[in-house]
Amino acid sequence: xxxxxxxxxxxxxxxxxxxxxxxxxxxxxxxxxxxxxxxxxxxxxxxxxxxxxxxxxxxxxxxxxxxxxxxxxxxxxxxxxxxxxxxxxxxxxxxxxxxxxxxxxxxxxxxxxxxxxxxxxxxxxxxxxxxxxxxxxxxxxxxxxxxxxxxxxxxxxxxxxxxxxxxxxxxxxxxxxxxxxxxxxxxxxxxxxxxxxxxxxxxxxxxxxxxxxxxxxxxxxxxxxxxxxxxxxxxxxxxxxxxxxxxxxxxxxxxxxxxxxxxxxxxxxxx
Length: 271
Hints:
Blueprint: E1 14-22, E2 27-35, E3 49-56, E4 83-86, H1 88-91, E5 100-105, E6 118-125, E7 146-150, H2 151-154, E8 165-172, E9 181-187, E10 190-196, E11 204-210, E12 217-218, E13 220-223, E14 226-230, E15 238-244, E16 249-256, E17 265-267
């Protein structure tokens, strides 16, 4: 968790199928993407909203390792330094993890860097501090929309002396290289899967898993983008169906081979 640094539309339905040869396992992988009859559930990319932003120092490791979204080392996970901890009203109990935002400094000609904006990914939670009122030190307290940024990213839009800056933000689509990553952990019949590197909306609303001897089994959100299930699916190739917050679904078949083990990561289809 982070503590702030104190200084009716038309309906469309499209589906497609892609097959890929997996040379390492000599197994074909088939992916389906389904585009439902709905529009995006998050605000239009043109809709700017008001918030405030603070930063944390480069020597502070709180966002580099761990974090409330479960990504571990965000730089090694591919998110780099362009990450953000979000206040309670934005964090949505972890569902927002992985979403991308464009952020710009506003209203302060003394400290803002004109004509600049940054793109950050939600990877952490800025915990409220109820020892202070929301308008007097409790920057991440409800109902405040607040971003906590690495100072290296904050300084791309404002002078660091600005500290607690008024900003505007908007949701945008995430762009990622490669497919969605599934990192499997757990023990026995307890299976925990960290899902990362998600393009498009970036955050997930539902996940299902399937072994070669099972039907589709819904997984539950454990925390952030860690999803879990109790099921005996060892010694079976695993498939995943993930649904993003905007209602799009991607299905990746046989992502993990029959001999998968805990601690391994596998790559599936991308939005």
